[in-house]
Amino acid sequence: MTRLNLLILVIIFTCPLVGVVHAQGATIKGEVIEVSPEQRPIAEQRPIEGVTVKIVNVATEEEFTGTTNKNGFYEKKGLPAGRYTISVSKKGYGDRVGKSKVVAAGGEIFDRIKMRKKENIFTFLFDLYGYFFIGVMIALILIFTGAEL
Question: SS3 for 17?
Answer without folding.
Answer: helix
